[in-house]
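Quarterly update from the structural biology core.
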Amino acid sequence: MLERVFEPLMQGPVPLKRLQSGLGIGLALVRRLVKLHGGEVKAASAGLNCGSVFSFWIPRIEPQASSCSKAVVVLDGQLKRVYVEDNKDVRMAPGELLRFAGCDIVEVGDGDSTLSAVLQAKLDAVLKDIGLPDISGYEVARQLRAHPETRSIPLIALTGYGQLFDKATAGSAGFDAHLAKPVDQDELLHTIDEPVANARRVNASDTSV
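Predicted structure, tokenized:
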């Protein structure tokens, strides 16, 4: 099988105890991706019951200064935000992007912990998911809007619910902005920065009066 294992739809004998087998496309896809990078992939085994080793090589290239078409937006000042997302893996990329852009991020994995986290953080904005495991993001937004210490904090929804009805529901629950996943990094940074800037202008106006 070593000579044919990377062919599309190629499968070895299915064990009797296994109810389902794969489709035989995974390794074919691996080979295709490696070849797109100008590389090669190989499979090796010392024999029956000795396991298998899969290795790939791709050519190394020198980085170019012009290889990045977009510069990461750096937000104004050291901002603190609570990011509410129950899936840790999904939370990782936006969280790192926000840190790279100059934000101090407090990550929260469920809705029930959001209010206490926001009260402790003394933050500038809340970026949160809608489909949380315990209570909905809409209910969390209503809780934040009902509390005297959090009612004016900018709320941004980052969610897979992207229909017009979802946006309208988010607005009625108290969200200032709505972003549907997946979202462009520049759109994310600009969208979360705008409500913060507006809130600061309002606070400055109140102070001056």
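The helical segments are 26-36, 88-100, 114-121, 137-146, 164-173, 185-208.
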